[in-house]
Amino acid sequence: MEKLKDPRVKHAIGTVEALFSRTLDFGLWIVAYLDTIHKGRRKTYREWKRAVGEDSLLSSLEYPLIKRMIAEARRRDYVAQSVRGLSAWPELTAEGKKRLSAALFWQGNRKIPYDGRVYLVAYDVPETRHNQRDKLRTFVRGIGCVKLMDSLWARVSDPGDEIRAFMRAERIFGSLIVSSVDAGQKMGENSVAEELLKLYDIKKLNEMYSTWLKSVHSIPDHIDLLEYLFIFKDDPQLPRELLPKGFLGVKAGEIVTPILQKILT
Predict the structure, then answer these.
(1) Strand runs labelled E in 54-208
(2) In 12-151, at which residue ranges do the beta strands (DSSP E only) sit?
(3) pTM given for the model
(4) What would the pLDDT profile of 64-117 be if each residue is shown by its tens digit?
(5) Average pLDDT over the chain, rounded to an integer
(6) Which of 181, 186, 168, 175 is nearest to 151 (CA)?
(7) How far apart are CA 21 and CA 23, in angstroms?
């Protein structure tokens, strides 16, 4: 399937497979990325195909695979049905942009409101509804909650409204309790905030950002952005007040956020 040309591209293929759980979402990324990077280019399908061929990562993939991704996205109305027909440069619809941002858990960079509290989430879904329990657990983890124990999670901003809306939309029947404690409250020898940093493994995350910063180009290329997003998906995006001094995710975010904002919004 892939025509691997160098170690960096080979590693990037693994990153793509880990970052995107569905090839459809990778297809949406390709459309959004090329549309942003090639602003001002003639918007014909021939030019789009040429742009794919010029990209070190995309050119390593079999083109029919990319074509199938875009066709599937178009069938689902995530890629616009252009009045010029299928020969037009692919562009995401509003729903396509919404789905892609959700797939990458992208909501900007460290702008989460912080009131000095940590919110605890407890839910109970009947054991007989295994699919609903799994779906809810995946969603709760995806919005940045960290697991304290079975069905008990924590986050530094109130996730109650998000979870309730998801449960309604997915018709998940069960109970939900959201409470909060002061972030400075002691849990044994450490504060609640300090325990959260351990659970989120901020030290390991900082090491990953450090490695990325040492290799990123002065103007991040396609692979740089994907490698960043791979790290970002495990970043709880804690408020700066809680982050350890010198946390490198802040510096990394300052480099790529202006580019990613254009691609994902």
Answers:
(1) 117-124, 146-149, 152-155, 175-182, 186-187, 190-191
(2) 117-124, 146-149
(3) 0.83
(4) 999 999 999 999 999 987 655 556 789 999 999 999 988 887 765 556 678 899
(5) 89
(6) 175
(7) 7
